[in-house]
Amino acid sequence: MAEHPEEGWTGPFRSIICNDERQFNAPGVRVPMLSLSRLVPREHPEWPFSVYHSSLYTPGAMSVDALQNSVKLVLRMVDTLEQNRTPRNEFRGEVFCSRYGIHPDFYAHPQEHRAFFDVLYLIDGTRSLAEIARETGASFQTVNRVVTKLEQLGLCSSVARAA
């Protein structure tokens, strides 16, 4: 999910801190797992964080605000997984957008215009909403909003995507 907090970052498997996700993905187990951690950057002298694997590593060392923000992030991730689907066009060629009243004004909303046409171009039944978002650089919510509008107009249909 690309929409993470500015102070956050993502990385390939076993590249951030490598905790329990390694255990769950071990040979003979292979439960796909991600890691969600609050760490200082690797170049920080207290990396990964000051009380990591010490007797001070207790619930009291945790910030309630940080925990609440993590819960919100996980819920957004679950929403994204649940809403992900693969849209398929029900049209050929370019859509006559003004006929449907769906032509974002290039001058008033240039980013919305670009995102709309990027999404419209990629809904051919081969990419999920998440893949389209990743490919276009648009947020998942933006792609979902465009596709939902196109579905309402009968310009595309979607197949639910397995997680």
Helix amount = 25-40%
Which assembly state applies to the chains in this document? single chain
Question: What is the general shape?
Answer: elongated
CATH architecture of the largest domain: Orthogonal Bundle
Distance between the termini: 13 Å
Would you state the CATH class of the largest domain? Mainly Alpha
Count of alpha/pi helices: 6
- The number of domains is 2
Largest beta sheet: strand ordering: 1-2
Strand content: 5-15%
Q: What is the CATH topology descriptor of the largest domain?
A: Arc Repressor Mutant, subunit A
- Uncertain segments: none
Radius of gyration: 20 Å
The average pLDDT is 86
What's the β-strand tally?
2
What structural category arises from helix and sheet content? Answer: mainly alpha
Order of helices and strands: HHEHHHHE
Largest sheet: 2 strands, antiparallel
Protein model, in words:
The radius of gyration is 20 Å and the shape is elongated. By secondary structure, it is mainly α. It has helices spanning 20-24, 64-83, 97-100, 110-122, 129-136, 140-152, and strands spanning 85-89, 156-160. The model has no long low-confidence stretch (mean pLDDT 86). It has a two-stranded antiparallel sheet. Helix 4 crosses helix 6 and helix 5 packs across helix 6 (140-152). It has 2 domains: 20-82, no CATH class; 84-160, Arc Repressor Mutant, subunit A, CATH 1.10.10.
Short description:
The chain has helices spanning 20-24, 64-83, 97-100, 110-122, 129-136, 140-152, and strands spanning 85-89, 156-160. With 163 residues, it is mainly α.
